[in-house]
Structure formats: structure tokens, C-alpha cells
Design a protein that fits this description.
CATH architecture of one domain: Orthogonal Bundle
Keywords: DNA-binding, Transcription, Transcription regulation
Helix content: 55-70%
Strand content: under 5%
Largest sheet: none
InterPro entries: Homeodomain-like_sf (IPR009057), HTH-type_TetR-like_transc_reg (IPR050109), HTH_TetR (IPR001647), MT1864/Rv1816-like_C (IPR025996), Tet_transcr_reg_TetR-rel_C_sf (IPR036271)
Shape: globular
Radius of gyration: 19 Å
Order of helices and strands: HHHHHHHH
Structural class: mainly alpha
Number of helices: 8
Oligomer: single chain
Pfam families: TetR_C_33 (PF13305), TetR_N (PF00440)
Number of strands: 0
CATH class of one domain: Mainly Alpha
CATH topology of one domain: Tetracycline Repressor, domain 2
Protein name: TetR-like C-terminal domain-containing protein
Length: 189
């Protein structure tokens, strides 16, 4: 019998909070059960298994981030939209490092994170409209944006830029300007 007040959504929210506090790698069914003061078996009437729990956390994070990105990009285009998009990702990763890590896992194409992941792809494509890229070039540009932003954010979260003489924010701004310049002058196939 399901425990009163315990739902899949409540478990997902708690798992996301645990991920932010202790790291996504430490989010397990056992850790979540300890958090609620119940046995692991009590959770299985709400979630299928650890993989399902992790996918739910990713779906929650992707949804939260997509909402933030969409709100920050509203009415913007070109370099302004690119900056709003990138800054939203960076801010979210800083505020929710565990949830950000959840989004990086390999997700099932038909799992709970599929729809929010498609929304992210659509938001990324919407930035690229201002750059007049071909459909093939858009794919390459999406991959470049993802690799650049994720790489920078991951290194920053790991503290890689703490001991350098130039502030991380300054380098971030240069990176965004460089991305805009590259997208504006995209090489022909």
C-alpha cells in the first residue's frame, strides 16, 4: 500500500534536492528512502527503479531549465538570445549542480525526459534562426554550442578557473562573443 503523502513527484523533488546537496552520483533509492525514513521497498510503488528515479530527476531539471531559458530568451534574437540562453544554463548549473548533472546522463528516447529534451533542442534551434544556417549547419552548431557551454560550465563547477589571474566571467563573455562571431560567419560545407 502506498505511503500517505508520498508520490512520484514528491520523491522526484526530494531526489533533485539530494542531488544538489550531495551530488547526483549519490542519489539512490536507498538514500531517498533514508531521507523519508522508510524502507527502500516503500518507494517502489511510486518509482520503478533507480534508473527511473534518475530519469525523473533529469526530466524535472530539463523542464525547470527550459522554463528559465524560454523566459530569459523571450523577445530576444541573435547575440542577445545566445547570451540569454547561455547565461540561463550557467546560472542553473551553478544553482542546481546535481540537477544539471542529471541532465547529462544518457536518457531513453521515450522516457520521462524525452519531451523536455526536445523542448531544449527547439529552444537551441530558435537561437539559430537569426544566423541563417542550413539544416545541416544547425546540427553542427547545436553540437558546438552544447560542447562549448557544457565544457565551460563543467570546468567552472569543478573549480578549474579559480587560480587564474583573469576572472571567469570575463572569459565567459569572450566565449559568448566568439560563439556569436562564429555563428555569424559560419563556414560553408
Amino acid at each position: 500500500m502506498p505511503r500517505v503523502g508520498m508520490t512520484a513527484d514528491r520523491l522526484t523533488q526530494a531526489a533533485a534536492e539530494l542531488a544538489d546537496e550531495f551530488g547526483f552520483a549519490n542519489v539512490t533509492v536507498s538514500a531517498l528512502a533514508r531521507h523519508f525514513g522508510v524502507k527502500d521497498a516503500s518507494l517502489y510503488s511510486h518509482i520503478k527503479n533507480a534508473k527511473d528515479l534518475r530519469a525523473r530527476v533529469a526530466a524535472l531539471a530539463l523542464t525547470e531549465l527550459a522554463d528559465q531559458v524560454a523566459a530569459n530568451m523571450a523577445g530576444r534574437s541573435g547575440e542577445d538570445a545566445l547570451a540569454a540562453f547561455a547565461n540561463s544554463y550557467r546560472d542553473y548549473a551553478t544553482q542546481h549542480p546535481g540537477r544539471y548533472a542529471a541532465m547529462q546522463q544518457d536518457l531513453d528516447a521515450d522516457g520521462p525526459a524525452a519531451a523536455p529534451a526536445r523542448r531544449h533542442a527547439d529552444l537551441t534551434r530558435s537561437i539559430l534562426h537569426a544566423y541563417n544556417l542550413t539544416p545541416e549547419a544547425q546540427i553542427d552548431a547545436i553540437r558546438l554550442l552544447g560542447a562549448t557551454l557544457h565544457g565551460y560550465i563543467t570546468l567552472e563547477l569543478q573549480g578549474s578557473y579559480r587560480h587564474t589571474p583573469r576572472p571567469s566571467q570575463s572569459s565567459w563573455q569572450v566565449a559568448l562573443t566568439a560563439l556569436h562571431t562564429l555563428l555569424t560567419n559560419w563556414p560553408e560545407d
